[in-house]
Amino acid sequence: FLFAPAVEVKIEVVIPEKERSKEEMSPNGKASPLVYKVNGTARHYHLEEHPIASNPYHNPKDVVEASVCHVKDLENGQMREVDLGCGKALLIKENGEFHAVGHKCPHYGAPLVKGVLSKGRVRCPWHGACFNIGTGDIEDFPGLDSLPRFQVKIEKEKVYIRASKQALQTQRRTKMMAKCISLSNYNLSSTNVLIIGAGAAGLVCAETLRQEGFSDRIVMCTMDRHLPYDRPKLSKSMDSHPEQISLRPKEFFRSYDVEVLTEMQVAAVDIKNKTAMFKDGFRMEYNKLLIAPGNIPKALSCKGKEVENVFNIRTPEDANRVVKLATSKNVVIVGASFLGMEVAAYLAERAHSVSLVELEEVPFKKFFGERVGRAVMKMFENNKVKFYMQTEVSELREQEGKLKEVVLKSGKVLRADVCVVGVGAVPATGFLKQSGINIDSKGFIVVNKMMQTNIPGIFAAGDAVTFPLALRNNKKVNVPHWQMAHMHGRIAALNMLAHGVELSTVPYLWTAMFGKSIRYAGHGEGFDDVVIQGDLDELKFVAFYTKSDEVVAVASMNYDPIVSKVAEVLAAGRTIRKRDHPWEPSHDAAVFFLSFRTGDMSWLTGKGS
């Protein structure tokens, strides 16, 4: 793995000649039909018809070609951001071959040149999404779109890139998808694939089915009033409106025939008759079913819990309402969870006061460890957030029906105009209790590595499942995070199509507070030691979480792309052991070296940014 710093490159722009830009169409101009069998019946379908051409740029005026470097300017395993005049590309050299793709991660725009290159793919330094350098296709998440891929040629020892101006500007590519060819043959109460839940898992499942050429009916249903949206932003960017955080526009769902039933709650599933019963009495038959209902936030159980202006952040409307009510007012947040801490950080500059109540003595202690938790707590205190630790709420007091005070079990009384509750969540699986689908004692749906439940044709994904995590010797775990939900949806879709693909991703998550991010990869549940490199006081550190000498997770702040590097080591199936390392920082405070004896992965370098 190599950390590739951005390099400025002088370029020579060459306007392509008309002869060079003419499209060479294939004789038939259409993709070959594929066949998918449903209940033994062969169904033929075409991918959305695109001309097959040796030149992918349909409009000659939309094409730019540039000489970007000499062939010897890049060594194997190096990446370089290059400017083509009207946009940038990422040039990569691996195994003697050059590749060019978009230079920004389509998820949140991270510069991929600062990411990690390994075995034919580049991993985003911010949130861990992975892209194939040969095709640009997304291979791990978060995010939905792939990278545009550009043509590379070598002439007289110079490297040229030929690219669409539009692709250089958008820096994203939606993979080709099928459309439903038999929608008119269905009645309203029957679908081939029914998806319960319209979060990341449900949407990625639907998109993957279409990308794989599936052309039967797909119906998604959700209790939400909105089309799928970027749920992590509800606590990180609380004043965002639904249309600003939607994952796909309305036109996308129309174009690819993915039907979304909003404000529809499933009340029961009849596995014998393959039917979902909705709360309003509507029934829908299915052939394949994905259950991805997510979680339900826990409410407070104290006296006065029905008082007005007490919120769980579940929808964009909840988040927007809290921001409006909290401005220049007193806010109490119950629970130092990811949601609670992110809400506290977002409101700190807007509210008159922000108080945070937590049962533990340190925020994130079970997840990040006590030392990291205390460093984060200090950052919050420096931003005028007041903590009340090792206590709980005993009463919510009102005045004229609205929240006035929060009373703690310690006896402390806090002034409060708004209260946000972030004390965890439970899986939204109550409707499955009598279904015959295997649910564990905590309410989680139990699935195998292919996201299959114990019932043939029924799959489950996202926050409401437990699944075998390859990284931890197939231990059954629940990982309620955004990246994992994406991958669950993809694996479920592929196995609906009988591809036999198993889940093998490395969990990757992040949290953002006061303009700083903590990145995390792995699964550190039950860690027994934390090895920290860097400076916690300066909020520039890496924390390695170990269990029985093995590194099981890593977290960092201001040390990109170290978490993505460790994620790649873990994804390769290699074990990092604590006893193999000197764990000594170098003389340069910004750089440290870890001698990872991991097969052919003999070293790993981290650099602060």
Task: Note the topology.
Elements: E1 12-14, H1 18-21, E2 34-38, E3 41-45, E4 63-70, E5 78-83, E6 88-94, E7 97-101, E8 116-118, E9 121-123, E10 130-132, E11 138-140, E12 149-155, E13 158-164, H2 165-170, E14 193-196, H3 200-211, E15 218-221, H4 233-236, H5 250-255, E16 258-261, E17 266-270, E18 275-278, E19 283-285, E20 288-291, E21 295-297, E22 310-311, H6 316-326, E23 330-334, H7 338-347, E24 353-358, H8 365-368, H9 370-382, E25 385-389, E26 393-399, E27 402-408, E28 413-415, E29 418-421, E30 425-427, E31 445-446, E32 458-460, E33 465-469, E34 475-477, H10 482-496, E35 508-513, E36 516-522, E37 529-535, E38 540-547, E39 550-557, H11 562-571, E40 591-594, E41 604-607
Parallel strand pairs: 14-15, 14-20, 15-16, 20-32, 22-29, 23-24, 23-29, 24-25, 31-33
Antiparallel strand pairs: 1-4, 2-3, 4-13, 5-6, 6-7, 7-12, 8-9, 9-10, 10-11, 12-13, 17-18, 18-19, 21-30, 26-27, 27-28, 33-34, 35-36, 36-39, 37-38, 38-39, 40-41
Helix pairs in contact: 3-10
Task: Write a structural description.
This protein is of the alpha+beta class and 609 residues long. The strands form eleven sheets. A seven-stranded antiparallel sheet has the order 1-4-13-12-7-6-5. Strands 16-15-14-20-32 form a five-stranded parallel sheet. The chain has a five-stranded parallel sheet with strand order 22-29-23-24-25. Helix 3 (200-211) runs parallel beside helix 10 (482-496). The protein is globular. Residues 1-55 and 584-609 have low confidence and may be disordered.
